[in-house]
Amino acid sequence: MRVLVQPEPFDAAALLDGFGAGAGAVVTFTGLVRADDGLVALELEHYPGMTEAALTQHAQAAMDRFALTDALVVHRHGRIAAGEPIMMVATAAPHRRAAFDAADFLMDWLKSRAPFWKREIGPEGPRGWVAAKAEDEAALDRW
Amino acid sequence: MRVLVQPEPFDAAALLDGFGAGAGAVVTFTGLVRADDGLVALELEHYPGMTEAALTQHAQAAMDRFALTDALVVHRHGRIAAGEPIMMVATAAPHRRAAFDAADFLMDWLKSRAPFWKREIGPEGPRGWVAAKAEDEAALDRW
Amino acid sequence: MTIDVLYFAWLRERIGVPRERVDTAAATVRDLVAELSARSDWHAAALSDLSAVRVAVDQRLGDLDAPLPGAREVAFFPPMTGG
Amino acid sequence: MTIDVLYFAWLRERIGVPRERVDTAAATVRDLVAELSARSDWHAAALSDLSAVRVAVDQRLGDLDAPLPGAREVAFFPPMTGG
């Protein structure tokens, strides 16, 4: 199991090299910054210390709950340009249902419980902070 | 959209390079051969012509149904050693729900409707053909 | 008419050939199965339990009632186990 | 007791500092909010609608009734928007 919180871009291919060895199913989710409405970048604030601890705790919860053989969570903070990956989760399990569900579970949790806050940057400069979505909150009720 | 049916190992990193550019969410599923019960390899038979056509048709169905921005299906045939990837799907969409559901949908379909037949190879030689699972058939009813 | 008949996986192994060309007047897949079953004991045994057999007509999944006139290729195989 | 109070995102911007050290006898987060709100109009405004504010005590999510004695760090922030 591996959790990374970093400002730098991550090398997905390198991180996934050998990931899930011996498993039957590997699912990855990558979130990218969409250039909606002329968005130039996102700026992510996090809570140093708590963010790493919370991500580790939830990656472990996913490992236990879905009997994963491995899990990976990478999340960037700081300024992330439109088009760039902002985060990735990967899950490995003997069978596909567990790998899919665990990735889905981790994403629902990350969207509404991980200590990150996003601000949009347009060509004109910083826009507002992104408001939490009711649908992201509701998604957690599935688990 | 891209569909590959091939005996050779595939380079996931190369295939995914640039995949999902402009999207907000990319999901990948990779199926690997598990070394259960001393399994040495799987041998996959396919239906040349029909397999490619069926995969293309269903990748297109997933594109349409989940409004994907891109989709990729790679499936090997022939002999595939334990531990090696046997197939991969990747889906790209503006938001995560569509990307997850489309990958899940493609996998349920591939497991029970794609023209592939698996035979297990043990250290002692070929074992029997893998029987279709009722759970794989039932999984299709979700869609 | 002449139709290519293809077999896959254990049907191919039990019948002993991957494909054969047959001259038939079968109106449906069901009629074709009856004709094929008369070819050899192997054919008859392999095609005896059709609940374990899937069929494609011109590379599209069909059923026993699928009409054959105009078809060029019929394939028989077990339920698929991809992924 | 002395507690480090942290603010994130728009709470940090509106209150004007990312963290401050406070000397308090507050028994709960609710009591601490009352004390902080008396510090400045900015504090009062930022903490006026607590339905838009989440709290963590020693880096664990808590609520307004969370007890403070023994705590070293309390953070206030808007609902999280990761991923």
Give a structural overview.
The complex is a heterotetramer, with two copies of chain A (143 residues) and two copies of chain C (83 residues). Chain A has 143 residues and is an alpha+beta fold. Chain A has a single domain, classed as Alpha-Beta Complex (Aldehyde Oxidoreductase, domain 3), CATH 3.90.1170. In chain A, 31% of the residues lie in helices and 36% in strands. In chain A, the strands form two sheets. In chain A, strands 1-4-6-2 form a four-stranded mixed beta sheet, with helices on one face. In chain A, strands 5-3-7-8 form a four-stranded antiparallel beta sheet, with no helix packed on it. In chain A, helix 2 runs antiparallel to helix 3. The model of chain A has no long low-confidence stretch (mean pLDDT 95). Chain C has a five-stranded mixed beta sheet. Chain C has a single domain, classed as Beta-grasp domain (Ubiquitin-like (UB roll)), CATH 3.10.20. Chain C has three helices and five strands; from the N terminus they run βαβααβββ. The model of chain C has no long low-confidence stretch (mean pLDDT 95). Classes of the chains: A alpha+beta (143), C alpha+beta (83). Chains A and B meet through helix 1, strand 2 and helix 3 of A and helix 1, strand 2 and helix 3 of B. Strand 2 of chain A pairs antiparallel with strand 2 of chain B.
Key attributes of the depicted protein:
heterotetramer; A: 143 residues; alpha+beta; Aldehyde Oxidoreductase, domain 3; four-stranded mixed β-sheet; globular; C: 83 residues; Ubiquitin-like (UB roll); 27% helix
Mean pLDDT of chain A: 95
Q: What sort of overall outline of chain A do the alpha carbons produce when their principal axes are compared?
A: globular
Low-confidence stretches of chain C: none
How far from one another are the termini of chain A?
Answer: 21 Å
The CATH topology of chain C corresponds to: Ubiquitin-like (UB roll)
- Which bin fits the share of residues in helices of chain C? 25-40%
Please tell me the CATH architecture of chain A by its name. Answer: Alpha-Beta Complex
Give the full name of the CATH homologous superfamily of chain C.
Beta-grasp domain
Q: In percent terms, what proportion of residues of chain A is strand? A: 35-45%
Structural class of chain C: alpha+beta
Count the DSSP helices of chain C. 3
H/E series of chain C, N to C? Answer: EHEHHEEE
